[in-house]
Structure formats: C-alpha cells, structure tokens
Write a structure and sequence with these properties.
The complex is a heterodimer of chains A (about 525) and B (about 475). By secondary structure, chain A is mainly alpha-helical. Chain A is built from 23 helices and 2 strands. In chain A, a hairpin with a 4-residue loop joins β1 and β2. The chains are: A mainly alpha (about 525), B mainly alpha (about 475).
C-alpha cells in the first residue's frame, strides 16, 4: 500500500465529516431549549467551517495527487475501505458546504419556530453526508453518503415545507433514489471487472473496454443527470425548491445539485474516457436544451422560487456543457460556475426567504414596489440578480465566460462531429435570456408603484438577515474580480483530469483481452 | 443391575440435541405449571419462556461443533449453519414474547399461548437441524400446527379465526404438495437423506428426468408456500392482518428463517444435479415476489397488510441469494434474515404500542403526528422503515447490497437490476408511513400502554439496525462462518 498523503498529520477529513454529527448527537441528548439549540447548532457549524479551513491553507496546488488522505478497512468481507481524500476539484466543495451550512443555520433563526431541534439536527447530519460525498474515494463509501443524504433532506422538505410538501418531497426522494440505484449496480459490476476493488482511484486506472464503458456511463448518467438535474429528469427540482423551507432550498441549490456535476468529474470522465467522448453529442444536446429551453420556461414562472429553480437548471446546463468539452478553460469554468452558483442561487433563495417571511407568499404578482419600503434589501437583491445574469465583476461571469471560451476553442483541440463554435453561440443566447427573466422578475417585485397595503407594511432587512448576505456578497465579488486563487487550487487537478479523460483506455483493454485469450489457449 | 440390552445401539453424541430437549421439556413443564397459576400471574410463564430461550441460546452456542456432527443415526445434524439459524429464531421468539406481554394479557389460556410458541420454536429448530426429509417434515408440521393455533388465538375475533382457517387450509395444501414432491424424489433415489438423494440424482438415469422434475417442482412449491414467495403468497396478507400482532411478528420472522434454511439445504444438498432447472424457476419466483410484494403494498391502508406484502418483497430479495447459489449468496441470505429480524420485530413492536383504548392502531392514519407526541418511537420507527426501504446508513441497505452483489457475481445482472428498481418502488410505501408520522398532525390522542421491556425491545432493534448499518462487517463475517455445514 502506498503511503498516504496527508501533510497535516491528523485526520482532518474525518473530523470535518463527523464533527457536525457529533455535535448533533450532543444537541439531541442534552439540549431542550430552542434558543440554546440554535446557538449550539451555530457553534457546531462554525466549528466545522473552521476545521475545514486548513484544507485550503495547507493544500498543495502543485500536485494532482489526492491530499489529506485517510485509509482504513471498513468492510473487509467486500474489500470496502473507509478511504478519504480531496484534490483541487473536491476541496472547494467541502469548504462551500461548511460555509453554506452556517448560513442555513442563521437563516432559520427566526422563520423556523416549530421543531427547531429536529431542524438543526437534520441540517447538521445533512452536512456530514454532503462533506462525505466530496471526500469519499471508495465507491461504496461515496454511494453510502450519496444515499444517506436523502433521509435528512426528505425530512427537511417534508416537515418544514410549504403546502404541497408531501408530493414534492416524495418526488424528490424517489427520483433521486431511482436515479442512483443503477449507479450501485454499475459500481458492483466494476468491482468484479477490476478483480475486487471499490477504489475510485483504481477504477480511474483500470482499462475498461468500450462496451463496459458504454453501459456504465449510462448508469452513471442516470444518477448524475437526476441530481444535476438535466432535462428531461429535472422536474423534481422546481417542486422540491418551491416547497422546501428557505434553508432547504439554499442547501439544495448550493450543494446538492453540485453533487451531480462533481459525479461527472470524479466518475464519468476519468473512469470512462472513451464513452465520455462518445456521448459528447448527447451531453451537449441535453445541456443546450437545459440552457435555452429551460430559460424560456423560467421566464413564464409566476412563483419566485420556481423561477429561481428553473434558472438553476439553466445554469447547471453550463456546468454539464463545460464538463464535456475536455478543455482546461471549459472544465475550470464548469467548476467555478458550480461554486459561484452555490453563492448566487443560495443568496437568491435567501432573498425570497426574506420576502416570504414578511408576506407569506411566493407569488410574483403579490409584490410590487418593494424597493421603496425595503431599500437595503432592494440593493442586495439587485446585486445577486446581476450576479445571476453573470455581469462582469461577479463570480458567475468568470465561470460562464470560461465555459464559453473553452467551448468555442474546443474545436481546435478535438475532432467533434459538430462545430463547438455554434454550441458556444447557442449557449450565449441564454445569457440574454437569463437577463430577461431575472430582470423582469426584479422589475415586477421591486419596481413599480407601491399600491398594495401589505407591501407597504414590510419592514426592511434586520441586521441578522443582512449578516448572512455579507459573506456571500464578498465571495461573489472576490471570485468575480480575482478568481486566481481558486483557479490555482484546481488547475493541476483539472489538467490531470483532462489527461485522463482524453487518453483512451481501449488499447490497454485490447491488450488485456489478448493476453486473457492467450492464457486461455495455453491453458488448454 | 441386570444387563439391559437395547434392541439398537445407543445413539452417539446425544448432547447435540440438548437445546431441543430444553425447549421440549420446558414447554411441557410450563404447560403443567400453568394449571396452578392464578390468572393474575400468567405473565410468569412469559418470563419463564424468555429464560428458557436464553438458556437454550447459551446451550446452542456451547454445543456448536466446528464441523457437521450428527446424532440419532444421522437423522439430526448440528453444524454452525443450524446453530446460527437457531439463535436467530430464539432471538425472534424472545422478541415475540416481549411483544405479547401487554398485547395478550387479557386473553384466555395465556399459558398455552406461550407454550405453543415454544412448540413452534421446537419444530423450527428441528427443521434447521434436519438433513433428511423425515426430520424436516416432522419439524415443519410441529411448527405449522402450533402456528395455526397461535394465529387463531383470539377465537372471538372474526378475522383472527378467518386468518387461522385460511392459513391452515393453504398450509395443509402446501404440506401435501411438499410430501407429494418428496415421494417422487424417494421413488427415484429410494432415500430420504439429503446428501444421498443429491448424489443419486447426479447419477440418475435420464429416463427419470421427468419424475425428478415433478418432484423438484412440488418440493419447491411446498417450501415456497411456507416462506410466502409469490405466487404462493395468497395466505400471507390475510394471515398477517388477522393474527394477533405479536404472532404476526413471530411468523414474519422465525418460520421464514427456518423455511429458508431448509430451502438452502434442499437446494444445495438435494438438487445440485438440476441446478439449471431450479434456477430458472427460482428466478421467476424471485422476480414475481419482488414485483407483487412491492407493488401491492402501495395499495394497502392497514399497516399489517402492508408489511405482509413487504415481506413478500423481502423474501424475493432473500431468494436472490439462493439463486446465486454461491458462498456470497448463501451468506447474503443469512445477513438479510438477520437484519430483517431486527427490522420487523421493531416495526411490529411499535404497531403494538399504537393499540390503545379502542383503537387498533393498525391503519396508516393512526400514525399521524406520532413524531410530535412520542418523538422517540417516531425516530425508532423512522429508522426501521428507512432500513426496510434499504437506505444507507441503516442495516437494510447492506442486506440488499449483499444479495444483489451475490446475484451479480452469479451473472444474474437483469434480476439484480429488476430487484433494485422495485426496491425504489417499495420505498414509496415505507416513506408514506414516515409521512404520516412526521408531516401530519395528530388527529387522536395517544394513550400508550408502555412497559419498559417494550421500550427496550424498540430501542434494541433501532440501535441494532443503525449499528449494523454503520459497521456491517461483523455480521457479514459471522454469516460467512455460519455456512460451515451447508457448504
């Protein structure tokens, strides 16, 4: 067994994964009072965030090797290991998760008044599973966290959600589970093919022949496409978003959707390079539908959350598009887009939460002229609407422009069956479309005459509410103006990923098949 | 002392049957003790039953040989495989007795109730220790007759009597089929011994193939009846719904363990010569069970009925392990049964707790708002239901995982895919119970009759599925070691 790469000398990833659950257990056992629970949950989530910070500071950006690794036997009977590690692709997501959990806890401070304790416990346990997904380097461990995540999320939407919550949460649960069970079958099939290993890194090295890659790619595609979500399996997302409580939407848009994009980067591309190349037309087609068609759908929405949900699907279309262009800019752009969308979509859902807490409706038409009673809020929301449109200076601009450049230039590097220039042009249309639906929504909610009495009575944001927007504003600006540190972190990992994704495994697979056939003959 | 000569040699290794002896003697002793006990003290018999089971479990562990040993001239076999099954059934019986304490306390003839449970247990222990059709059938009938009476125990309740009658008629029919099948196999091989039949079938003349097929089909059908594999599942929903809930809990686990152990011995020892043929049949049965169980459960409003269909789905999964017919498959089936024991006992314990003044507590609606009134029970029930649905970090996930892995290893990929897709369908009805508990408001007052033993039982099952879910390796290893004697 090769030596483990962990500069810190203590199991920081395990600590980040299980600190929230340990905190949740303590809260469950010892705290009764709602306010004490809130503070304790805040302390635990902040502590987790602090624990994850060394990941960034001690990270070595010059290597594509997994870092902060841990490896223990978990289920020797099936050669399943408790194997953790992060590289430049997964590390930012771990920190994003721990950051957004803090914001979720704060945002629920006032608006969740029933079953506060269960609510906080659900979020802390959810944090464990989410960080676990991004750290897992054993396919079964990955699946374990991936599915376990459903339980707290199911309860969050179902218990604290809106009117139609039961339908939404069942749909969410069954869609996601139905998508991912095939992934389990694929992983088990790969286990037997590779001679008894569940290691993700071993799968990356093993030369699968094309038929295997083809089927396994499809199995993974179902799992990840539901999670991203890609058209046509996206319909659970608007329902889930609409009914989820504010913080549920935040974590859903901020982290859960990224698990799908992360899955493509961690599984499909490096393990199945030939199938990934083969399926580029399909993936590009689905991404373009998500980007263009879903943007039109978003324009037609009258429900604030539903509109932002559809806008999320469109933005995730950029992510899948960039992922399957195999160029440095496109994939880096895809990852930046995911992180940035984590900030922007989360902030937009928080904005809706602010409105909802005052008016208890998400209907766009119920508002109008809010800007004149809530000037500070109007400014904050304007900022994030601009970020959603990907205006220069915002983090999303960096992500989208990189995807577009990467797509535009992919023609020069690879010989696709279609011209990626046209793809880039088609995708650019959606930038206009996203401006249309976002600004139109802003206009209808914020601008206009103040005629409705309920709107007149709305107080501006409280300090607490303002507080959780501040870090998001700063992060969006920082990544928009100076994205270099984040790009540096992922640069080498993504170069390595592209090398894996563009070097065919078929020759090695053929060699293996030949030697197996030869052994078969000599065996006789 | 006069020289007594037996007409036959004294059986060797008689100590192997000690666990069964303890159960048999205690069952009869308790029956007599019952006559002298006043009605208010009938619960003592229950406690004595629990103690008997514990002593027997201890004896079973002590007597487990490293390899197969037989007594009674080879008619009774003791090996780790049988021991493991016996331990599972003993644990199931202890749970069933604890579940009965409050539920049955107003019934007449309580003493007989617990004794019948012991007799059923004795029958099952004989079944799993059998290596020939005679002992197997003897145990099977002892178990079946005791269970028929247990199901119909509330004789004043119409549905209980109805359930018992249906169970009896269909059970007798299936026993007849089993016997009929055994006669064909005997006709070809002139033996009742599993291993002897197995070797003689391998050497059997081709002209006997038709008779062997006939025998195999009838034996499989008879066994499938006992473990409620579709399409032989018809009795299950009615019996589960009508039987007193502790009895439902009992028959949903213990006879399934016994039935599957016999099933495994028959497949592995008796029928290896026709493996291709029986695999074809079992694939069909497993697929049908998983589909019917999971789809029909959706339509149920009564949770006991729902769990009956869920059982049918689960036995389909266990069957996957048998179809794989490799070490991983048989071990997987044992893992599944172990986890299933805890899940089902816990769920039924909570259903029993839901019965309160005048409310049966068996409709899904009755669970509305449980999480607000009794968060502890709701949490336990939630964990158990998520476990039944096969969601990780709970034991049910690994149960499904091991059998699916075995099925894929044995090249039954399509069956594995079908099974896993229908397990997603199955999630729906488990989630619906959670929906009632967590998302809805309470519509009626909860007035629980809770004994501390019940609370412990619920806690033990919930903790067990969680611990197995987080660290399943010990259970998997034990189940692999328990295959000594089968493989």
């Amino acid at each position: 067994m090769e030596s483990l790469h962990n500069v810190l000398g203590f199991p920081i990833l395990s600590l980040s994964i299980f600190l929230p659950t340990a905190g949740a257990l303590l809260i469950w056992l010892f705290l009764k009072n709602d306010n004490a629970v809130r503070w304790a949950a805040l302390i635990v989530s902040v502590a987790t965030f602090i624990v994850t910070l060394p990941l960034a500071t001690a990270f070595d950006p010059t290597t594509a090797h997994m870092q902060f690794e841990e490896l223990h036997h978990w289920i020797p009977a099936f050669n399943i290991h408790y194997q953790l590690g992060v590289d430049g692709i997964s590390m930012p997501f771990v920190i994003l998760t721990s950051l957004l959990t803090i914001i979720c806890v704060i945002s629920a401070w006032r608006c969740i008044q029933t079953r506060v304790k269960e609510y906080m416990l659900a979020f802390l346990i959810l944090e464990t599973t989410l960080i676990g997904v991004f750290c897992a380097l054993d396919a079964i461990l990955f699946y374990f966290f991936w599915e376990a995540m459903l339980i707290p999320m199911f309860l969050i939407i179902g218990v604290w959600g809106g009117k139609n919550r039961v339908y939404a949460t069942l749909k969410f649960f069954l869609y996601t589970l139905g998508g991912s069970v095939l992934m389990l079958i694929a992983v088990i099939a790969m286990y037997f093919k590779t001679g008894g290993s569940f290691s993700i890194l071993a799968y990356m090295d093993y030369p699968f022949d094309f038929e295997w890659q083809f089927w396994i790619f499809l199995a993974f595609l179902v799992a990840f496409a539901v999670k991203v979500p890609m058209w046509p399996v996206h319909t659970w997302l608007p329902d889930a978003h609409t009914e989820a409580p504010t913080a549920g939407s935040v974590i859903l848009a901020g982290i859960l959707l990224k698990m799908g994009g992360y899955g493509f980067l961690r599984f499909s591309l490096p393990m199945l390079p030939d199938a990934s190349q083969y399926f580029v037309p399909l993936m590009v087609g689905l991404s373009l539908i998500a980007i263009v068609y879903i943007s039109f759908v978003a324009m037609m929405q009258t429900d604030l959350k539903r509109l932002i949900a559809y806008s999320s699907i469109a933005h995730m279309g950029f992510v899948t598009l960039g992922t399957f262009m195999f160029t440095q800019q496109a994939i880096e752009g895809a990852v930046i887009n995911m992180i940035s969308h984590g900030f922007v979509a989360a902030a937009l859902f928080l904005c809706v939460g602010v409105l909802y807490d005052r008016m208890h409706t998400r209907d766009i038409l119920a508002y109008g002229g809010v800007a004149s009673v809530m000037p500070v809020f109007a400014a904050v929301m304007l900022f994030f609407c601009m970020a959603n449109i990907a205006l220069p200076g915002a983090s999303s601009f960096v992500g989208e422009i990189m995807v577009l450049i990467g797509t535009f230039s992919a023609d020069q590097l690879y010989n696709f069956s279609f011209s990626t220039k046209w793809v880039a042009i088609a995708a650019t249309i959606s930038v206009v479309l996203s401006a249309c639906y976002t600004l139109w929504m802003y206009k209808r909610v914020m601008m206009g005459d103040l005629v409705k009495d309920e709107v007149k009575a709305m107080p501006d944001m409280s300090a607490r509410e303002f507080m959780y927007f501040v870090p998001l504003i700063l992060l969006v600006l920082w990544m928009g103006v100076y994205p270099l540190p984040v790009l540096d972190i992922m640069h080498v990992s993504i170069s390595n990923l592209i090398e894996q994704a563009t070097s065919s495994k078929l020759e090695d697979a053929a060699l293996i098949a030949q030697s197996a056939a030869a052994a078969h003959i000599t065996g006789h | 002392m006069a020289n007594v000569t037996l007409p036959f040699p004294f059986p060797q290794h008689l100590e192997l049957i000690l666990p069964e002896m303890i159960i048999a003697v205690m069952a009869m002793a308790l029956l007599m003790w019952d006559i002298f006990l006043p009605k208010s003290k009938k619960n003592w018999i229950a406690y004595a039953t629990i103690a008997t089971c514990m002593v027997t479990a201890y004896a079973t562990i002590l007597l487990t040989p490293a390899a197969s040993m037989t007594t009674f001239y080879g008619y009774f076999v003791m090996d780790p495989f049988a021991s493991f099954a016996k331990l599972l059934m003993l644990v199931a019986t202890v749970f069933a007795v604890i579940l009965s304490l409050d539920y049955m306390k107003d019934e007449e003839y309580l003493g007989e109730y617990y004794c019948l449970m012991l007799f059923a247990l004795l029958g099952m222990m004989l079944m799993v220790s059998s290596n020939n059709f005679v002992t197997m059938y003897l145990g099977l009938e002892l178990m079946a007759l005791s269970v028929y009476v247990l199901v119909g125990y509330q004789r004043d309740v119409l549905r209980s009597s109805e359930a018992a009658l249906k169970y009896f008629i269909l059970g007798a029919l299936s026993s007849g089929m089993l016997l009929y099948g055994i006669t064909f196999l005997y006709g070809v091989t002139t033996s009742f011994d599993f291993a002897t039949i197995g070797t003689r079938l391998v050497d059997a003349n081709d002209s006997a193939h038709g008779v062997v097929m006939l025998g195999m089909v009838f034996v499989l059908a008879g066994l499938a009846f006992k473990v409620s594999i579709a399409p032989f599942h018809m009795w299950t929903p009615d019996t589960y719904e009508g039987a007193p809930t502790p009895v439902t809990a009992f028959i949903s686990v213990a006879p399934k363990v016994a039935g599957f152990v016999v099933f495994m011995r028959v497949l592995h020892d008796v029928l290896p010569a026709v493996q291709a043929d029986y695999t074809m049949i079992l694939v069909f049965l497993a697929a049908l069970s998983i589909i019917i169980g999971n789809v029909a459960a959706i339509a149920q409003r009564n949770i006991k009925r729902m769990l009956a269909y869920s059982t049918i789905g689960h036995v389909g999964f266990v069957l996957l392990g048998l179809i794989a017919a490799n070490e991983a498959g048989y071990a997987g089936a044992l893992v599944y049964l172990t986890v299933y024991l805890f899940m089902n006992m816990g769920v039924f314990a909570i259903i029993i707790l839901m019965r309160r003044d005048g409310i049966q507590g068996e409709l899904l609606d009755d669970f509305s708002g449980l999480s607000k009134v009794r968060p502890g029970y709701a949490l336990a029930m939630g964990l158990l239901l998520f476990s039944l649905a096969g969601i990780p970090f709970l034991g049910g996930f690994w149960a499904k995982y091991v059998v699916i892995m075995a099925a894929i290893e044995a090249d039954h990929l399509y069956l594995a895919i079908l099974a896993i897709i229908f397990s997603v369908v199955g999630c729906f009805y488990y989630l619906r119970v959670i929906k009632y508990m967590y998302f809805d408001d309470a519509r009626v007052d909860f007035n629980f009759i809770e004994s501390s033993l019940m609370k412990i039982a619920v806690a033990v099952t919930a903790v067990a599925v969680t611990v197995i879910g987080l660290y399943p390796d010990p259970v998997i290893q034990i189940c692999k070691q328990a295959l000594v004697g089968l493989i």
